[in-house]
Amino acid sequence: MKRFLQAAAFTLFIHSFAGWFYIAGNAVFHPQTLALPLTHFLSWPREDTAGIISFIISMVSFFVWNLIKDKK
Length: 72
Hints:
Order of helices and strands: HH
Low-confidence stretches: none
Number of strands: 0
Number of helices: 2
Largest sheet: none
Distance between the termini: 19 Å
Mean pLDDT: 95
Shape: elongated
Strand content: under 5%
């Protein structure tokens, strides 16, 4: 079970960090789109909200991954 949680936390960290990195890059080159919805299917979340959520998830999952990873 520990290995599963460790792998899940690391995977969640990588993917949420990639999502934040995408939004951060988009904010640099297209800042006017931050107030737009992330997708045209839903009105929520907006791009800026999705970036904040992604960053928080990446921080928490990185913290969890460091807590449960095997010390060598």
